[in-house]
Amino acid sequence: MSANKVNVDLQRERAKCDFNTEELTNFLDWGVKYTEKRRNLEQKVLSVKGLLDDTPEEYMSHKEKYENSIRKSVLFYKTLHSMEDENMSIDEKTRINFRNIVTSAVFKDNSPLMLHNSMFIPTIMGQGTDEQKAYWMKRAKNMEIIGTYAQTELGHGTFIRGLETQATYDPDTEELVLHSPALSSYKWWPGGLAHTANYCVVMARLYIKGKSHGIHPFMVQIRDEETHMPLPGIKLGEIGAKLGFNTVNNGFLGFENHRIPRDRMLMKNAQVLKDGTFVAGSNSKLTYGTMVFVRVIIVNSMANMLAKAVTIAVRYSAIRRQSQPKPNEPEPQILDYVTQQHKLFIAIASSHAFYINAMWLWEIYYSVTSQLAGGNLDNLPELHALACCLKPLSTIDATTMIEKCRLACGGHGYMLSANLAQTYGLATAAYTYEGENTVLLLQAARSLVKAWGGHVKGQPLKGTMAYLAENPTVKVWDGSVDGIIQSFKVVAIRKLSSVVKILKEYEKSGLSPEDAWNKASVFLTAVSEAHGRAVLLSVYKSETDKRAAALSPPLRKVLLQMVDLYVTYWALEKVGDMLLSYVPVVGKRASTVRRQFALSWALRLDSGHVSPIAFMSAAAERRQYASITERDVEELQRRYIELLAAIRPNAVGLVDAFDFRDEILNSALGAYDGRAYERLMEEAMKSPLNAEPVNQTFHKYLKPFMRGKL
Ligand SMILES: CCCCCCCCCCCCCCCCCC(=O)SCCNC(=O)CCNC(=O)[C@H](O)C(C)(C)COP(=O)(O)OP(=O)(O)OC[C@H]1O[C@@H](n2cnc3c(N)ncnc32)[C@H](O)[C@@H]1OP(=O)(O)O
Ligand SMILES: Cc1cc2nc3c(=O)[nH]c(=O)nc-3n(C[C@H](O)[C@H](O)[C@H](O)COP(=O)(O)OP(=O)(O)OC[C@H]3O[C@@H](n4cnc5c(N)ncnc54)[C@H](O)[C@@H]3O)c2cc1C
């Protein structure tokens, strides 16, 4: 792109940037090698003719959108296949694809084939025997068959053990009979299921001789390979229009005594022998393996979506000028408003935090799955608990911050051509799919409470939970990044020990363990959030420190500023919790008073109102206890504002370093050249209504109406 076509404000911003953006790109990509591979892949895909839409998707009918997305999917996957390296490990492939979101250049609302790669193939890999893998993987990889993952039913999504689809073994014919006994047992949601896939992995309850043996995966052909007609005994359709994912072809599926051969049960973990003997796996939860994989991948996917949204919003904020605070001076760039920086810079830091945590989590995932392959399940519970914390936190934060990016673009952010609304639509889906967030936080709480129980009995705490065994003492608030991270850990310890006490109290009062759990569940989700925040913050800091040593001083400085910003932002967001993290300098009663003070402080902050009398008496109490002080909070606030100011000159450089091509951003507001107004007008002219100066409805309805003739 020639420099003179780039908006002058953006040119100035780029000239101001004091670090090498290419170096940051390489850092985010996990090395120069991966930047090159990603760019090659993007170049190859984007040079395929017919992949990018001339007519924006939003002007197409529902049916046209689907047909268009299938047309593009074929071209897209053909190109990807031509670049596949058969010998590459899944680890290497994931690293290459870590920051590859070239799909979003092609599909604003995702492809109907996405489940084939993200869940169908991983399930065959994780749940199939070697023989099954050899047969099905070849067909699936070559896309001779197209598959999806059919687990959720109309009646149950969260509660997998409540799934109703039956797979009954018939030893006489050595077949499994799939049946949907009620409307609530119809599969509902799977991507690509409606009209795209001809196979799917169906999660169903296995019955042998009238006895249930739990939920297992079955490879089921649902359409004829030639005619693509649904097979006899199979009812298929699409579930209809949604907030997003409208080109994903999410479908429903019902069975009427549909028979499949015995060997279509994916039998790596549990088996049905010919005579109907059931051989249980070492752990029934291994069947849930694909979900753990996708939860891990989602953290990375949130980093990408958020990075995309904030690139659009920061570039637009650099070219947009509004208001005139100083008379006779030009209108400032809206990026100079500190409130705007507050909305946006945390989104940059959060995408960094998610990238770094996602890679760290991926490495744990990869190592635990290698251990599982050798029969060692020791670290599976911790991986599950981690995924159940980080998937919700990353989706909650990304969703909130993407919406903030959209709002930060004012009215133009509301345009679909800005591509912020669709990005929000995709992100918010991840709040629900692959385990609804509250439910996952409660799963994580279950692991934390269990680990705490073990700890109290003297069992060692492992891995990321090891800190829970530390004596929760932070005696002096020093306001340092490490000190704040330590405070977050102390908060998690305190919340956990407190909820365990509450659970015991509830049970003592006569509640069943289940009812006590439900009554304490608001606090339990808070425990998981606290643990998850402690992990996110400390991994972000420690991994950045580890890698920063090899970077140039200017980039190191910027990255550490971003870590500081992230930590300070969350300390201020959770200032009530920070008060919880301090230890009384005197006695036991003091601790209770101090906690009450912390609570009242937090409540007042939440309502935005601090009563002076309560404040003074609280301040008097505070003098007795080593608590964070009003001055400490003010210092944090000042530091936060200073950090925004320090980051401001590098803001455009920071988002440029995400290295998203214009086709990938797909946004009138966020393109590299900053010609947002021209692009908004160009996009407006694509509206079919602008094809003619007078719409026929004028003569048909408006004119007669206006003349009183209707
Ligand atoms: C390389 C290419 C990649 C391409 C990538 C492209 C990237 C794009 C990003 C991805 C986009 C993908 C689109 C995905 C579309 C959505 C697909 C879906 O939603 S599909 C549908 C997704 N649907 C959902 O996610 C449903 C959510 N629901 C569930 O997962 C479960 O029902 C449950 C976990 C909530 C409870 O299960 P329940 O059976 O009632 O269990 P209990 O509570 O009774 O706990 C018993 C014990 O088991 C333990 N344990 C549990 N799970 C696990 C595990 N996984 N492991 C280990 N352990 C586990 C638990 O800790 C406990 O231990 P303990 O205390 O006894 O020691
Ligand atoms: C865009 C999208 C794509 C999807 N793709 C697929 C797919 O390809 N394949 C597939 O199989 N599925 C898919 N799903 C389904 C998805 O996995 C489920 O919707 C998800 O697991 C949530 O389950 P649910 O809908 O039953 O929610 P529910 O469990 O009914 O949740 C409703 C509310 O109840 C609460 N709740 C439920 N149980 C508890 C509990 N134990 N304790 C406290 N609160 C609880 C939840 O927190 C939530 O607030 C998709 C969903 C979406 C939105």
Describe the 3D structure.
Helices cover 55% and strands 8% of the residues. It has a domain of 197 residues: Butyryl-CoA Dehydrogenase, subunit A, domain 3, CATH 1.20.140. It has 710 residues and is an alpha+beta fold. About 6% of the residues have low confidence. Strand 10 and strand 11 form a beta hairpin. The strands form three sheets. Strands 1, 2, 3, 5, 6 and 9 form a six-stranded mixed β-sheet that branches. It has a three-stranded antiparallel β-sheet with strand order 4-8-7, with no helix packed on it. The protein has a two-stranded antiparallel ribbon with strand order 10-11. Helix 10 packs across helix 17. It is built from 25 helices and eleven strands. The structure holds stearoyl-coenzyme A and flavin-adenine dinucleotide. Stearoyl-coenzyme A (ST9) binds next to helix 5, helix 7, helix 9, helix 11 and helix 13.
